[in-house]
Amino acid sequence: MDFSLGEELETVRDLAREIFTDHATAERLRTVETSATRVDDRLWNDLAAAGLLAAPLPEEAGGSGLGPAALCVVLEEQGRRVAPVPVWPAVLAALALAAHGSATQRAALLTGAADGTARLTLALEEFAPADPCRPVTTAVPEGTGWRISGTKAVVPSPEGAGHVLVTAATRGGTGLFLVPARAPGVTWTPAETTSHDLAAHLTLDGAAAEAVGEPGSGAVEWIIERANVALAALQLGVAQGALRHAASYLAEREQFGRPLATFQAVQHQLADCWIDIDAMRVTLWQAVTALADGQDTRRAALVAKWWADEGGADVVHRVQHVHGGIGVDTDYPVHRHFLWGRQISTTLGGAGADLARLGEVLAHEAVTS
Prior knowledge:
Elements: H1 7-23, H2 26-33, H3 41-49, H4 67-81, H5 87-100, H6 103-115, E1 119-123, E2 138-142, E3 145-155, E4 161-170, E5 173-180, E6 186-192, E7 198-211, H7 219-252, E8 254-255, E9 258-259, H8 264-293, H9 298-322, H10 333-346, H11 351-368
Parallel strand pairs: 1-4
Antiparallel strand pairs: 2-3, 3-7, 4-5, 5-7, 6-7, 8-9
Helix pairs in contact: 1-4, 4-5, 4-7, 4-8, 5-6, 5-7, 7-8, 7-9, 7-10, 8-9, 9-10, 9-11
């Protein structure tokens, strides 16, 4: 299978790498981590001005029509630099509106999503140990709209978001709903995260909402699959950035008159990291290809997410280990990769949850084949 990017995606990758490298310096990261929002607004605006937020969106929405592949390319470069901007929830929410939203919803929000002025976020997780495709939060119809009640956990980067896409259960099946971020019945409780993102728990008490597509039509499964793939792309970049730090550090440090990189035990650790990263890359682009071809994507998305959770966590742990004592210094650059790797590996459920869901898919395929 050919996983080469092609000219358009290579251009997106190179531009994203240049912008993230210029902005996500150690000094800038320290500044943003102590800010009120934990979001680098200057970087966000530059990504928007360069057309990178719009690249995945349809052309009729002001985008370039490059789809999830472009989003994954940008997320991989973001992960390399652990840059604090909410690309995956904002752009993925916009893609969901483009695919499932009404003409009114698309007209109201997609242009702003493309140019970065109307930020969106996603509320996909809950405290209950449940599959994100089976939310406990409920929505009931009222007139031409809906009312939602329930609690969503760890909503990423809600500060500055005008709307949030919420998954909820209805009598007709699970659905995706658009909720104004600051409206009656909407309460936010700030929540610190491992990666320093200032997330929040979202409590909905009969909050007014609009359905994005018909409940039970598959919009929830659609967005969860793509969220799994987006997180896998971000984790791939995090792992690559961590390995880059390890290679530089071990080439410079010496013990017994030899660079640490020449010791066999260290080489074995880095070789294991490389194998994990290569598996993460292959399974990610297999999932992206499945999305592009309109195939049954749930299996491919779960495989990519499992590798991101298991392999990504292993890489950041090994990299921190080979750095020795300096690896646990919370201000040392590699520690940020460790924190991001841990955070991503538990988002939408960890590796164990991924395997359980994958087992359900395989069992269903075996019964129906």
